[in-house]
Amino acid sequence: LGAVYLDSGRNDRALQILTEGVSVDSTDGTLWSTLAEVLRAQGRWEESLSAYKRAAELLPEDGAVLNNLGNTYQVLNQPQSALRYHLMADQLTPSDAPTQVNLGNAYAMLGREREALQAFRRAVELEPAYGGGWLSLGGALERGNRIEEAIRAYEQAALADPNNRPFVRERMLLLREKRP
After folding, report:
1. Is the pLDDT of residue 4 over 70?
2. Nearest partner of 121 among 105, 109, 136, judged by Cα
3. Is 15 exposed, middle or buried (0-12, 13-18, 19+ CB in 10 A)?
4. Residue 114 has pLDDT above 60, yes or no
5. Percentage of residues in the chain with pLDDT exceeding 70?
6. Residue among 82, 72, 130 at smallest CA distance from 103
7. Helices (H), the chain
8. DSSP secondary structure, 106-125, as one string
9. Are 45 and 75 in contact (CB under 8 A)?
10. Residues 6+ apart with CB under 8 A from 74
């Protein structure tokens, strides 16, 4: 029921129901994960982190929970912890493009650009129509001053998802100025 309220945008009611739910059954990992999502939607990152940790304890084989836990660590600027959970998710879901992007983002936060680039390339190999993968790859190439490759990646991002076009247009203008 909490997930229904979450999906309908009634976060306060979802929070109430889920909080009651985990107090009744503290061993339900799905309840903890959904509670963490509600807390995240409210910007309550530390509380969300605690709920995701509990969900991960209860659902250690759930790649989505591990990814969300890693993403929460990233928001809290704890990239080493983020990387740990993204690597665990990658072990469970190695063919999932968003997992590869999350892994790449954690590597990038740690300044490990080569590994970030590998993860972003893997994401677009796995799912060529995933605009987020192309955007991330473009960003990594841009940070590496590989302008022509970055432009091509951003072009693919715009093709993959029209919602990326305004951002891509902006990046293209800046990158064209950097061309030799």
Report:
1. no
2. 136
3. buried
4. yes
5. 93
6. 82
7. 2-7, 11-24, 29-41, 45-58, 63-75, 79-92, 97-109, 113-126, 131-143, 147-160, 165-178
8. HHHHTT-HHHHHHHHHHHHH
9. yes
10. 82, 102, 105, 106, 109
- Rounded Cα–Cα distance for residues 44 and 76 (Å): 11
- DSSP for 121-145, written as a single string: HHHHHH-TT-HHHHHHHHHHHHHTT
What is the C-alpha separation between 119 and 43, in angstroms, rounded? 28
CA angle 64, 66, 85 (to 5 degrees): 140
Q: How far apart are CA 32 and CA 14, in angstroms?
A: 12
42: three-class secondary structure by DSSP: coil
The yes-or-no verdict on residue 2 having pLDDT over 60 is no
Euclidean distance between CA atoms 51 and 148, whole angstroms: 43
Query: How many residues are present in the chain?
Result: 180
